[in-house]
Each structure stands twice: as structure tokens, then as C-alpha cells.
Amino acid sequence: xxxxxxxxxxxxxxxxxxxxxxxxxxxxxxxxxxxxxxxxxxxxxxxxxxxxxxxxxxxxxxxxxxxxxxxxxxxxxxxxxxxxxxxxxxxxxxxxxxxxxxxxxxxxxxxxxxxxxxxxxxxxxxxxxxxxxxxxxxxxxxxxxxxxxxxxxxxxxxxxxxxxxxxxxxxxxxxxxxxxxxxxxxxxxxxxxxxxxxxxxxxxxxxxxxxxxxxxxxxxxxxxxxxxxxxxxxxxxxxxxxx
Length: 243
Known about the structure:
With 243 residues, this protein is of the alpha/beta class. The chain has helices at 44-52, 73-79, 96-106, 112-118, 137-148, 167-182, 220-230; strands at residues 5-15, 18-29, 33-37, 58-63, 66-67, 81-84, 155-159, 186-191, 203-208, 211-216. Strands 6-7-8-3-9-10 form a 6-stranded mixed β-sheet, sandwiched between helices. A 4-stranded antiparallel β-sheet has the order 2-1-4-5.
């Protein structure tokens, strides 16, 4: 099915004299999962954070055709752009319920939104009164995703969501983002390598040194091949995905 659309045009990000992104254009549409892959330092986090509005950038950001470039992060969140940041950025000394309440207040949602959020990953309901700092890495990541999905966003940005997680958790999160995309959410994820996500990625871009060097519509395997070619690495045949 079709759905929402995030369109980024000519986005550039600089930190002092260093250029993190140079005139990058990316589109993510509902119905498919879009990935940006690239080595560490390529500018992936800068791209997602600039789309969310939390780092200064030049260029334009459009949400379903509407220019949201001038909106601050909280306003973009209320407009329907959600982010799962690298490093999670939770409040470790608050419990699960209170972490979700903070987001509900920012989005101006009713208190019932907290209960709805934990329904997405039932394990979280058993942890409602647990301090976030004592949760496992997988439970924390489920909490971050649940928090991002409060308010039914039109766009979901995922920055290295799978790093360091157990395979079972990765599969559950991968199923979640695939379902969201099919429901019309524009999913844009950034990863240094697709790994287990390769099966759910439909299209994407290769980002190297702040520039898009390839755009691929042939699925996760084709995107992985394009990435390997871009950085000059031969992918051994016995490591290629099957099925």
C-alpha cells in the first residue's frame, strides 16, 4: 500500500569547518522500508537528526509535500516525524511508565497513550514500574521504539537501532518496522551494515563521506552489494543471504 512520504532535498550539515553532509537528497515512502547504509562517520546520524530538526542544516525537508524545514524538533514530532536515536537517550532513573509520560506530554497526548504504547511489546507491561537503567538492552530498545510510535507518526527515523541486540530481539523489531511500513508509515533506517535487516529492506541509499554514491530499488541484498562495491569490498559468495 502507499502511504506517507518524507522527502529530503539538498541537505548539508557542517560542524565547524568539517562537512558531515553535502547536498544529500533522500526519499522514504510508506509501503516500503528505506535504508541508508554507510561506514562509521559517513554522516548517517547527521542525516536523520537533520531530518528531525535537532542539528542545524541547509536544504529542505518535506512531510507529505509540506515544507517543515523551519519547524523545531518538537513541532516536527507533533507533525508526525518520530526518531529512534542512536544511544537510545532514555531517562535511566525514571521507570518505563514515566519515560513514556514524558513523550506523551511533549506530543500533547492523553495519559491513555502510555497504556497503548506498551501494548506494542507486551514484555514492557511487566516492566512498567522498573527503572529503565536496569532493563536489558533489548527491553530498552523496545521502549525507545514504543516511545517513538506514540502519536501514530507518519515518518519513523531509526538510527542504528539493531546495534548490540540479541538476534531474537532484532527479529521482533524488524517485524515491527516492516509492519509499520506496510501500514503506510515512511520508515527510514540508518545502519553501518544491514545484517538481519536485509530481509525487510526494500530500497535504499549508500552514503559515503557525506554524499550519496548509490540509490538502489532492488531490495536489501542489492543494496548490500552496492555498498560493498562502493567501499571496494568483495562480498564472499558463501556469506550472501539465501531465501
